[in-house]
Records
---
Amino acid sequence: MRLVFLGAPGVGKGTQADRVTAQFGWPKISTGDLLREAVRNQTALGIEAKKSMDAGKLVPDSVVIGMVRDTLAAPSCQKGFVLDGFPRTVPQAEELQAILTGRNLKLDQVINFRVSRHDVVTRLSGRRSCPKCQSVFHIAFAPPKIEGQCDRCGASLIQRSDDKPETIEARLKVYDEQTAPLIAYYQAKNLLSDLDGSGEMAAVYTRLSALLLGLGAQ
Ligand code: AMP
């Protein structure tokens, strides 16, 4: 299946996309992960993108669209994929449609994760990430076995620079202004399914996999 996971930062799209990949095999394509990798590798693109990311703003459409176009061309994406964090603007959505149409493909569904604003802020501000293996923890909901240390590789956990309170506020404002219009955009195309993203990760996944199986996923 070709899926888009839509929702504000912190709704759990990335975590749930990992689970979908594990169960159904469609790779996750996270533009945030691709950009963070470019930042770590200090590529020209990464150095430029970091300024927008640290300010909680969007990286220019042309940059992310180029990354997604290249990734979608990979053989691993031919049977399906889960886009996490893309598209985030109407021009990105239009470009995605053009890329897929050019390959005689179409999106199967857009899953709109719904979580209260209060819960989103709690999830983002408590999130801790491993700078080495990219595992993600939460100080209250998914704490590491040893405080401050990654369970998987032992590296010291960090708080993403864009998970600091001032930046969280900026990111949510950007979501409201630039990304939320995609809900109506995909609704009009009859592609949108709402998903209650509140509560524990496992409970959310039970709802999500039931939804996907109902849509014919296998
Ligand atoms: P995420 O991990 O999806 O929350 O993304 C982290 C940051 O990467 C965002 O706050 C943006 O600065 C940038 N970013 C990720 N995806 C996109 C996108 N589709 N368009 C523009 N900027 C993006």
---
Amino acid sequence: MTDPSPDLSSALAADVLLPLALDGAYSYLVPEGMVVQPGCYVQVPLGPQIRIGIVWGEPRPALECEKPERLREMAHVYDVHDAPPLSNLNRKFIDWIAAYTLSPPGQVMRMTLRVPAALDPPPVRFGYRASGQVPERLTPQRARVLEVAGEGPAWSGSDLASAAGVSSAVVKGLAEAGALEKIALPALKPFTAPLPQAQPVTLSNDQEEASKVLRKAVIARDFSVTLLDGVTGSGKTEVYFEAVAAALAAGKQVLILLPEIALTGQFIARVDERFGAAPGGWHSGMKPRERERVWRGVAHGDAKIVVGARSALFLPWANLGLVIVDEEHETAYKQEDGVRYHARDMAIVFGALGKFPIVLASATPSLESLVNVDRGRFELVRLPDRHGRAELPQIDLVDLRETPPERGSWLSPPLVDAVGAALEAGDQAMLFLNRRGYAPLTLCRTCGFRFECPNCQAWLVEHRFRRQLMCHHCGHASRIPNACPECETEDALVPCGPGVERVAEEALSRFPDARIAVLSSDMIYGGEALRQLLAEIVAGEHNLIIGTQLVAKGHHFPHLTLAGMVDADIGLENGDPRAGERTWQLLSQVSGRAGRGEKPGRAIVQTHMPEHPLMQALVAGDRDGYLAHEKHMRERLDLPPYGRLTGLVISAASMGDAERFARELALCAPPAEGVRVLGPAPAPLALIRGRHRVRFLVKSRRDVNIQAFLSEWLGQVKPKGSVRLAVDVDAYSFL
Ligand code: ADP
Ligand code: ZN
């Protein structure tokens, strides 16, 4: 305690939440002369360090605190003009999520405090403008610079040099000679205000009806959830853009959430076109400068539209009035580490707390949302038809037991014929396989040795393009050896089963003239390269697109007429309660890529179980029938959305430690009505990144306060040593 002790009788103190996994906010003295208010960003001492935090409550007399003489003083408060205080609503939202997910509030708040640089005054850089003074020595190069510098407001040194086609030394020389004057420029590009009606489309009757409902919800300025349920290509995006326009007209900010950052590039361009201004983007792949610009823009209310990944919910919204959750059924909305939250569900909480509407859009809505419609909590708006003349594709099954591919290949004769015909006709075709890499397993033909990850309980996946064996759980990578590590036989290693790279290899040998594009999430495309590849596909530069689930999502490829599913059964066999629903969504989404333009589309589904109700419903286009079957099953088994599933994962450096702690926990589970604790049992993935894992599954009725139950239970024993306990309320992953 090195702070000089101030007079406590008149001093104020305030709670400050730090972006750390602490139990709650800490109290600090407000030094004399400092003014703070709730939501202010401050610097405070913590141990020997100074940390940035947020004032989490009204300042109050220091003497009301416990042990006021031990309080330390705040070190600094950020100017509210640079960093507007985080609103009451945002703070309430953070507290709500912390309580719901059983996370420390500081750990949730850390998602807001991601750009500390944005708290300081905005950076400036210097630019040049012609001063009107003519230099004594006027070379042609210098003249060119002055000519360029006379146009426009001001130029950065490097832009000016390159526009005039000279070296930056010429620009410097002119500045020294007084012919260019230096002026301050904003370092971050300001946001242009979007215009609600910059480039609207004329809506069809159905679309107009749907957009009316959404506009009404926006104008009501109250909480509501509307599910916009329309087949792929029905114009959902155009329709919810009308809601965005209404929110903009009301002076509100809008957040459009997308499940996949790979999609943001194409989407930002579309928003730009519709509203005449580029929206802010928000995702993990952004450069720090852009991140800072968007954070500030959101905090000051200048960024009116943000297109982002789930973490955009935690931006410091000044005036949020609408959240759109596109592809709401996507499980990518669930964060699976740190704070385990579902962005769709938390967007709805945000709307409820802030009294604004939420729009969920999907061609294959989640069972959760459909059941909320049944219960009368969400309003439903349907767009049953594709826009224009486009029709939904005809779907055919290929029974792999009766019509198998040739030995060592993966495409059955009917699928090969269909791809050939599409290419012949000058159309695009797509082959979908939800498995990355070349082969999911590599083994030795001589001794049967299988390559397994040293850190995880998982086979290594061959990635032939990179010439590596990789673990999809921890990223472990090693070169593919020539000889078997076990029996040392040369050239005896064989890949088993197909990944998307192997399908590409087969396609190349069957269709040597095809222009093939492979899209897979692990082909480190970075935003830019992927955006370019997608644009090339839209432009028709590639005619055979082969990919993992990345191809299923939201793309609009007008020339695509055939979608082939190489193995539709992947994913149906695991024990996940949502496996059927997810497979249904994925297959519907992939088949929905076909026939979005002038020509009708077709989908071919290779399966070993054509009699499965899911496959039958897919062929018959009987969505309601399939969903009724799925709802019935879930309800009977008390699975979500009828019951609740919470996962508890215990991990430790050794299996013994993990099991010991799990047994200890099991012994003190309090009895509770409507709650069943299953486990402990080794997790299906019992080893990840060198950590051994044991799980509990807690099944509870919806009316049970599961947080209270968990707090009471988990408060009794604390994990020690290498043991960690992760709580996953509303679990989506069961590995
Ligand atoms: P969804 O989001 O349901 O998949 P989109 O909104 O992306 O559908 O629409 C599919 C395609 O049809 C897009 O290219 C879109 O611009 C176009 N489209 C949809 N509705 C209209 C309309 N009323 N007028 C013109 N083009 C439209
Ligand atoms: Zn691994």
